[in-house]
Specification:
This protein is an alpha/beta fold. Helix content is 34%, strand content 27%. It has 10 helices and 10 strands. The strands form 2 sheets. Strands 6-7-8-3-9-10 form a 6-stranded mixed beta sheet, with helices on both faces. A 4-stranded antiparallel beta sheet has the order 2-1-4-5, covered by helices on one side. α3 packs parallel to α6. The longest helix is centred in the last third of the chain and has 16 residues. The radius of gyration is 17 Å and the shape is globular.
């Protein structure tokens, strides 16, 4: 498997944000992690990337223990995250942002990303901070792809976007998965996440409450009531 979390625990002071979870992602999968605000989803992604304090347990990526790996080492090994809130460089142009995404590999040509994201080609000289929210999300994803990821972590890619742009972003996510990039997706829009994914995990209060095939989770009564906005029948 490409990613495995073993009894992972994340603490911020005395607060246990992630409570000993187990999770795995096979190469080539699109796996989603859903749950309410504060469930520990983003803390889980940050722990994988070395951005959150791992109190106990381990992170294994590509067969190696990366629990204590330095943050800057992981992109060179193909593990890249698109953070919640996009994290673009607002004062740089679109093209400068894309080139920053390839720093771990000594640079790269943005042209393949312009082919996949024609809107970014149109705005290549535009300062990134002046883009719309959807365009900024496209830029954040394209910048991550400049790092040639084997495993792409996506943290709330649809947050704050209009419905048409949400649909566009999920089309992009599916296309990335079809290209062979492994994806672990954290997303509050549970229906879209489960429809895109092959497997899913449901996180509640820092723990994994449910796990299974995405199709099965879509039909699960608890999931339908709690996360899909459907009342109990």
């Amino acid at each position: 498997m490409l990613l495995e979390l073993r009894d992972l625990e994340v603490r911020y002071g005395g607060i246990r944000a992630v409570k000993g979870i187990a999770l795995h992602v096979e190469a080539g999968e699109l796996v989603c992690l859903i749950g309410a605000n504060g469930a520990g989803k983003s803390s889980t992604l940050k722990a994988i990337c070395g951005l959150a304090p791992v109190h106990a347990g381990s992170v294994r990526y590509d067969g190696a223990d990366t629990t204590r790996a330095r943050v800057h080492e992981l992109p060179r090994r193909g593990l890249v995250m698109v953070p919640e809130g996009r994290g673009i460089f607002p004062q740089l142009t679109v093209e400068e942002n894309l080139k920053m995404g390839a720093y771990a590999h000594g640079g790269g040509d943005p042209e393949p990303q312009y082919a996949s994201f024609p809107r970014l080609r149109e705005r290549r000289r535009q300062v990134a901070g002046t883009l719309s929210g959807g365009e900024q999300q496209m830029l954040a994803i394209a910048r991550a792809l400049m790092g040639r990821p084997r495993l792409l972590l996506l943290d709330e890619p649809s947050m704050g976007l209009a419905p048409l742009m949400v649909a566009k972003i999920f089309d992009i996510v599916r296309e990335i998965a079809r290209s062979g990039v492994t994806i672990l997706l954290v997303e509050q829009n549970a229906r879209l996440a489960l429809e895109a994914a092959s497997r899913g995990y449901v996180m509640e209060s820092g723990a994994i409450a449910l796990a299974g095939a995405a199709r099965e989770l879509l039909e699960n009564a608890k999931v339908r009531e709690a996360y899909l906005g459907e009342g109990a029948g």
